[in-house]
């Protein structure tokens, strides 16, 4: 098992290097001069612009700039924003709890709703209930989450006053206020996932329910709940796990919009704001961090497969047997 | 000018013009009376955007940031309702005879939030920081040759050239003193934990979430009845970039005051105010929208093409597209009808919609064998028009496109991201440098500063003024700018402004759509947003650009 983990970890290095290189190159190709962006409309002199360009290393060649940045990043130094004077690591540390809480809450909401719902519609496949859920999930999939977010704000914040429309309270300041403030944005992110996960689980469960071991369990007279959740759900959850891993990326991109609408101080809003301001150092560090998170989440899911399905763990020894 | 009066009489001096406000303020407000004031409470203000840093010289104090900075710092000078500059933290601001030296005397007994006294030495230390090479105020302060401390409370800015408008800078970041002790103790982190002399002191800042301020118990000001200012206990500013969410936050009671520069939300706030659900405070200053021409770039380097394009425009239709009908009047010059610098003569001379005249001018250019774009005689004029990817701006640019196409101009619309749009206008890397990397840009022009500051930046020699985006200037413009820099006589300065504006009606460095309306909308319990004063019972300039001074705002119980 350790060998498997080690092998997979080594495989991540070129992926991260490629992600960092592509990010660096793409940002370098963006039009606009970061030096001018920093000096803004303050009537900068050509000398002042040149000085800032020199300080930012913008006069160096691309490979030199990439190497300098990468060697600093390898030591954990992602640099400081010239515009906000904040270090990238401090900015990430400040924003990560917000985005992480949103992602955990929205994934939890999605899983808590979609698993029982997916199991139920698979069990009642073809029924009116199944058709109704299918229609609703199709509908939910077609609504962009920013539209949903504004709808939720109007109904639950402005009209009913149950939740705040905007703003963020840290968990360390007040757990109830934090959960209340994060509820609507998490729900905006979760609804699309509920639809995806429910439909996916339904399909897999219907196939599993036809398999011999389930028929055997039914023949033994085991209770339906036990058959569905103990014998059918586990083998049906591989696609679910894969998609959950992929959804981390979808959620990260979703937070860019949702954090903007709900005015939340998370990583997504920081990324958008810094891209708009051509804050290259901050954007490079952020993208590298997000790419690392994404790669490691999918790595963790890979490892989780091995625990869930011994066939994967022993696949190699069988193949060579 | 009032800044030079050195007293608090507020009579406006010789530059006060007719005493009218600098911009129109249309408000649907709850009446406020200083005798009814209740103290205490918290007001949450929803702002358009976050500010990068709170240190003067580092922070970009645009409209949202200025609201916060004024609460923390206070300013050496402030603009009155009559458009004049008055001493605020200063007791007086006096020029020498030839306007090359400006001497500021600070009020006695003012302390920063950390107890450090506000004196000339403190401002001297501030000056060293804000005039450093990495300061975004360096462009403004390049004119200051020497900063001289005269005595404990008096100091002098020695300028390279006369500048009658210099006190204007002291109403902004240049005139926001900050504690030198706090800065020197933590120079890298000062912008995260600012210490000023304003009515509210810093408590905490979570970027993109909120900056929390509390009452400064040792604030230097009292109200007309001798009550200690500020009235509020706490002031929280929240950046909420999405317009819908910001408006909803005030509707839901999460915030008590919101800020907007969008016509559609000015309208929504008006409707809510008419229904009694909130108050709105609107202002139209000397800032307007339009299109700027790069006068070095063919074919718009030819005045006939620019004139034709101006005659092709139907301003009212563009205003309707922007959603500004009934909110913003058509603009014809750098100054709104409420400004003392407005000229009816210029307004009458501004090119009106006249497609025949447009066609005539275009034909002259098209049939000119020496036409500047190098095309063959008879070929149509082709232009490129750039706009940021904002829905209302895209619609407006399409409006321009259809009007210009109607007179036979071939228009290519380009969507250019905001940061690039601005940089293209500056054109630092253009050939020659600062000549602009664009042909026509959708743009906002003008400000409420002294005309010299606005027009020098926009029409000074383009080789040395990166903010001369149109690259237009002339001997007359330079001559009149010199008058504006050196004359204290309102009539003489007015004539100079009118002469420049009149020249623009012929030369058309830009077109105009309408003035920019800004607004603050607020819960009905918030009082006296627009009624802030300057010591000496001078009325401040209200909610200009949706910014205010916060010490006299109070909350009904």
TrEMBL record, chain A:
Broad class of where this protein is predominantly found: membrane
Domain of life: Bacteria
Membrane spanning residue stretches: 9-30, 102-123, 135-162, 182-201, 238-262, 282-308
Record keyword Transmembrane helix present: yes
SUPFAM superfamilies noted in UniProt: MetI-like
GO biological process assignments: transmembrane transport
One GO location term (cellular component): plasma membrane
Domain ABC transmembrane type-1: from-to ranges: 96-305
CDD domains found in the cross-reference section: TM_PBP2
Membrane topology listed for this record: Multi-pass membrane protein
Pfam families per record: BPD_transp_1, BPD_transp_1_N
Record's keyword terms, sorted: Cell membrane, Membrane, Transmembrane, Transmembrane helix, Transport
Annotated Gene3D superfamilies: MetI-like
Cellular compartments annotated: Cell membrane
Family: Belongs to the binding-protein-dependent transport system permease family.
Full protein name: ABC transporter permease subunit
Source organism phylogeny: Bacteria, Bacillati, Actinomycetota, Acidimicrobiia, Acidimicrobiales
């Amino acid at each position: 098992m350790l060998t498997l983990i080690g092998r997979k970890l080594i495989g991540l290095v070129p992926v991260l290097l490629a992600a960092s290189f592509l990010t660096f190159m793409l940002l370098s190709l963006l039009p606009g001069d970061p030096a001018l962006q920093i000096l803004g409309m303050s009537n900068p002199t050509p000398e002042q612009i040149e000085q800032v360009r020199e300080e930012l290393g913008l006069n160096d060649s691309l490979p030199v700039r990439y190497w300098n940045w990468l060697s600093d990043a390898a030591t954990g130094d992602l640099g400081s924003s010239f515009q906000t004077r904040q270090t990238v690591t401090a900015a990430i540390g400040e924003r990560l709890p917000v985005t992480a809480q949103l992602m955990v809450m929205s994934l939890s909401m999605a899983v808590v709703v979609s698993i029982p719902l997916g199991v139920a519609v698979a069990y009642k496949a073809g029924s009116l209930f199944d058709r109704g859920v299918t229609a609703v999930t199709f509908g939910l999939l077609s609504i962009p989450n920013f539209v949903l977010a504004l709808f939720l704000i109007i109904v639950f914040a402005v009209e009913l006053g149950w939740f705040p429309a905007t703003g963020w309270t840290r968990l360390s300041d007040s757990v109830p206020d934090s959960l209340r403030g994060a509820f609507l944005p998490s729900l905006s992110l979760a609804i699309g996932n509920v639809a995806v996960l429910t439909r996916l689980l339904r399909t897999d469960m219907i196939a599993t329910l036809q398999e011999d071991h389930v028929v055997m369990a039914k023949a033994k007279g085991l209770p339906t709940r036990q058959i569905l959740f103990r014998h059918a759900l586990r083998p049906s959850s591989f696609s679910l796990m894969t998609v959950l891993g992929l959804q981390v990326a979808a959620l990260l991109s979703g937070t860019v919009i949702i954090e903007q609408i709900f005015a939340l101080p998370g990583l997504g809003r920081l990324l958008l704001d810094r891209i708009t301001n051509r804050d290259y150092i901050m954007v490079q560090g952020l993208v590298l961090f997000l790419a690392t998170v994404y790669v490691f989440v999918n790595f963790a899911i890979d490892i989780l497969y091995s625990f869930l399905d011994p066939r994967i763990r022993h696949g190699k020894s069988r193949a060579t047997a | 000018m009032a800044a030079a009066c050195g007293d608090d009489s507020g009579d406006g001096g010789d530059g006060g013009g007719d005493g009218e406000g600098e911009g129109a303020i249309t408000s649907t407000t709850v009446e406020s009376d200083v005798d009814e004031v209740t103290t205490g409470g918290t007001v949450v203000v929803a702002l358009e955007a976050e500010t990068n840093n709170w240190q003067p010289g580092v922070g970009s104090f645009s409209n949202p940031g200025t609201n916060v900075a004024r609460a923390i710092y206070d300013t050496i000078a402030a603009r009155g309702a009559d458009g004049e500059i008055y001493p605020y933290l200063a007791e007086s601001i006096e020029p020498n005879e030839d306007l090359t030296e400006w001497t500021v005397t600070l009020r006695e007994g003012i302390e920063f939030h950390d107890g450090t006294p506000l004196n000339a030495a403190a401002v001297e230390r501030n000056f060293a920081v804000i005039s450093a090479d990495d300061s975004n105020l360096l462009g403004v302060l390049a004119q200051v040759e020497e900063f001289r401390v005269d005595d404990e409370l008096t100091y002098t800015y020695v300028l390279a050239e006369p500048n009658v408008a210099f006190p204007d800078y002291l109403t902004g970041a240049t005139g926001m003193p900050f504690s030198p002790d706090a800065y020197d103790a933590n120079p890298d982190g000062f912008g995260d934990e600012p210490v000023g002399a304003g009515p509210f002191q810093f408590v905490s800042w979570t970027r993109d979430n909120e900056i929390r301020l509390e009452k400064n118990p040792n604030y230097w000001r009292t109200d007309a009845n001798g009550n200690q200012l500020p009235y509020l206990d706490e002031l929280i500013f929240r950046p909420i970039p999405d317009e819908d969410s910001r408006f909803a936050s005030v509707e839901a009671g999460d915030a008590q005051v919101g800020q907007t520069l969008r016509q559609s939300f000015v309208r929504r706030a008006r409707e809510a105010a008419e229904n009694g659900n909130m108050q709105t405070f609107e202002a139209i200053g000397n800032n307007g929208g339009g299109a700027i021409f790069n006068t070095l770039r063919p074919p718009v380097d030819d005045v006939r093409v620019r004139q034709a394009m101006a005659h092709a425009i139907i301003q009212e239709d563009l205003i309707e597209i922007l959603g500004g009908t009934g909110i913003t009047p058509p603009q014809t010059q750098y100054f709104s009808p409420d400004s003392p610098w407005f000229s009816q003569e210029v307004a009458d001379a501004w090119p009106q919609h006249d497609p025949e005249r447009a066609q005539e001018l275009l034909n002259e250019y098209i049939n000119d064998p020496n036409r500047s774009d190098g095309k063959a005689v008879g070929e149509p004029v082709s232009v490129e028009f750039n706009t940021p990817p904002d829905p209302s701006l895209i619609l407006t640019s399409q409006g321009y496109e259809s009007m210009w196409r109607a007179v036979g101009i071939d228009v290519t619309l380009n969507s250019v991201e905001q940061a690039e749009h601005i940089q293209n206008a500056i054109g630092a890397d253009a050939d020659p440098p600062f000549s602009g990397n664009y042909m026509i840009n959708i743009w906002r022009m003008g400000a409420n500063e002294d005309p010299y500051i606005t027009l020098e930046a926009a029409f000074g020699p383009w080789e040395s003024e990166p903010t001369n985006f149109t690259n237009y200037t002339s001997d007359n413009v330079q001559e009149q700018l010199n008058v504006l820099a050196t004359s204290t006589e309102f009539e003489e300065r007015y004539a100079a402004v009118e002469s420049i504006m009149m020249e623009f009606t012929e030369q058309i460095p830009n077109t105009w759509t309408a003035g920019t309306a800004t607004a603050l909308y607020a819960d009905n319990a918030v009082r006296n947003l627009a009624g802030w004063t300057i010591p000496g019972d001078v009325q401040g300039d209200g909610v200009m650009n949706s910014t205010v001074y916060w010490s006299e705002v109070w909350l009904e119980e």
